[in-house]
Each structure stands twice: as C-alpha cells, then as structure tokens.
Amino acid sequence: MTVPRQPSSPDSQDSPDGSRGPAEGHRHMIRRRWLTATIIVLLIGVPAGYLVISANQSRNSGRDKEDKYSATGLTAGWPSKVQRRLYDVPIQPYSREVAYYETNNWRTSRLYAQFLTSNKGLDKFLKQIGTSTPELKKNDITISKRDRKVVGWEFTDPGPWLGLTHVKKDPAPTLDVVVNRANPEHPMVYVVSTTTP
Fold first, then answer.
1. pTM of the model
2. Mind giving me the DSSP string for 26-50?
3. Backbone dihedral region of 139: left (phi > 0), alpha (psi from -120 to 50 degrees) or beta?
C-alpha cells in the first residue's frame, strides 16, 4: 500500500525536477515581511499623508479668507447665481478676492459685493449692467457712508477712485459702483445693489 503524496508546505520550495528545496530561513522570512510592510506603508501612507497636508492647507486658506472678511460682515466667496441674477451683479468668471453680504427687510434688499478683476473684466461688468467705463466719474464715491459702514468698507487707500450710480426702472435694482484703480491693470470693484420689492 502506498501513501498518497502530500502537497508541499508554503515554507518549502520545490525545485524544477520536483524535489524539495530547503525551507525559507527565519532571517529571510523576517526580511521579506519587513519589505512587504514597507511597500504597503509607502503605497498607502505617502498618498494619505499628502491628502491630509493638502486638506489642511486648503482649510487654513479658507479660514484666513473667512477671518479677513468676517470682521467686515462680508462672506469670502461668490454670491449664488440666483443672487447675482436677482441683484444684477455679473461678477466676471476670472475675478479674485470675491466677497459679498446680503441684507433683507420688508422695504429693501441689498447685495454688497466686491471683486478684483481686469480692465476687460470691468468693461464687461459695466456693459452687462447697462452702462460703460466712460460713465465712471473721478472721485465720485457713490456708495453711501451708511452702506460702507454695514460692510466695513473704507475708501481711504490710494486711488484714483471712480464711481457711478446706475438707476434702472423698478423692479430692477439700482447699482452704486465704486472702483479703485490703484493698480491700473486690476481694478478693485465695490458694488451695492438695492432692490425694492
């Protein structure tokens, strides 16, 4: 009677001719496991660490903006599409330093917005609200002291400062626009859009 051949254990190696080779040494097994663990850590740990660092930087950047604007009542970021359409404030897509604040009561609703744009962006913005760049008057601060106080705008930085008021037929909003052209290539635009329901 013959005993059936047992399958080889994982610790032994069969040579090509079918005979068993020496079992893996303890030292070699430890080295192999250590190498496997190191590869797993590198494949999983490094990308995970990168994601954590990236998320923290992004969150900190958002917090910095929020801190900068929260003191003034402004919210860093873009007003919703509905707000921009309702108040007729077409902020150009490539604008930066965008912030806004909305107030509502039974008599009037206002959207305060600010953004940094290009000369072309300013021209497009003014054209879309129904006016043009030549309508801007030098040293004409059209945003009232009351409205400036609401969001903490102080137009005291070096200018030149330009402004205009664009009145539309009700129920369309009236827009008070002030532009700081201290940087001739990138004007800073401040808008107060007022609607009366």
1. 0.65
2. HHHHHHHHHHHHHHHHHHHHHHHHH
3. left
